[in-house]
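The authors assume throughout that readers already know how a fold can be written as discrete tokens. The format is easy to grasp once an entry is in front of the reader. For illustration, here is how one protein appears when written out as sequence plus structure tokens:
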Amino acid sequence: MNYPKGIKKEFISVKTYGNRGMNLEEDINNSNKYYLDCNIAAIYKKPTPITINKVDYKSRKDAVIKEAHFIVPSTTDYNGIYKGKYIDFEAKETKSMTSFPLSNIHNHQIEHLKRIYNMEGIGFIIVRFVRLDKTFLLFIEDLLNFIDNNDRVSIPVSYFNDKGIIIKEGLNPRLDYLKIIDNYIEGR
């Protein structure tokens, strides 16, 4: 581009894959808002339990938390109710194109989802492979099956393709994961 006084500016187009649309948590939160607004389900993001140690009170409106710590390890990201069934799940993203590291899910979260399943609730994980632009729902029983029968430290994408279910993206809801839950409830 030519500017006055002979100044030349050159713009370089850079292809980036980061932030194409929203991140997984935003997509789920928007979907849950849609479900709630339409009286379909009441599913909420769980707050992280913290205790506040130090606060800087510049003014009543401008209080700033200076120090805090986690009270107890958090269980999972989301829980709620759908068609009379309790739902509980964890949401994770990975940039890997080949596998999902099991270290991304803590043992206490897996144990929590296992308890939910044993009490006839519906437990699962939602995993987005960012670079593959795919989002999967994997039920806790399939996650436990993988952990019990493999020595691997990560779940290959092929396992998600085989046992997981791709969550299709749309406008409203952004991620219609309850359509998958409907099929699960019918088959149970």
